[in-house]
Design brief:
- The strands form six sheets. Strands 3-5-8-7 form a four-stranded antiparallel β-sheet, with no helix packed on it.
- By secondary structure, it is mostly beta strands.
- Helix content is 0%, strand content 46%.
């Protein structure tokens, strides 16, 4: 549906008196198509905060019952595992809020669809990417501790371990 705001001026009835009235009317979308008006973060955006909420604004009010976890997916670009999060709808806006902060300096791919408007128009799909901000200087990105045990549970030391090009030896 499109929203039209009517604003009528009556007056002036005297030097400082003016009457204003306004209202809204919903009319059917003549194209019968649901479209995306805007997305956030913007396509190909960089330096996006890792705690961002992904927003999609549609041309019509979205039927909340047509929206579920598969209506929007967020994956690391080139990956296949969906980032966990919650999906919500308010009017013509759909939001995806990741359960955990996104990873620094990482490109994500967002896929939207299918979604339906309250008027029955169907949106089939749209895809875009954005990249998160670099880690601030001095940020500890985490570490991995590895313990190797034999079948009896006894700790084995001196085992060489490599994770993504970083190597170390167990104690």
């Amino acid at each position: 549906m499109w929203r039209i705001i009517l604003s009528l001026d009556y007056g002036p009835w005297g030097p400082q008196v003016q009457f204003r009235a306004s209202g809204s009317v919903l009319i059917p979308n003549p194209t019968g198509r649901l479209a995306i008006v805007s997305v956030s973060p913007q396509p190909n955006a960089s330096s996006v905060p890792i705690n961002t909420t992904i927003r999609v604004i549609f041309s019509e009010i979205v039927d909340a019952e047509s929206v579920n976890q598969s209506s929007i997916s967020v994956v690391v670009s080139g990956g296949s595992s969906n980032i966990e999060g919650t999906v919500s709808v308010s009017g013509n806006e759909m939001r995806f809020s990741p359960l955990l902060p996104l990873v620094y300096n990482t490109t994500y791919q967002v896929t939207v669809g299918p979604v339906k408007s309250i008027g029955g128009a169907v949106f089939s799909g749209y895809q875009w990417e954005f990249t998160t901000e670099a880690a601030p200087p001095g940020t500890q990105l985490g570490s991995i501790r590895v313990f190797v045990q034999d079948e009896d549970g006894a700790k084995i030391s001196g085992v060489e371990v490599s994770v993504s090009g970083q190597s170390g030896t167990t104690n």
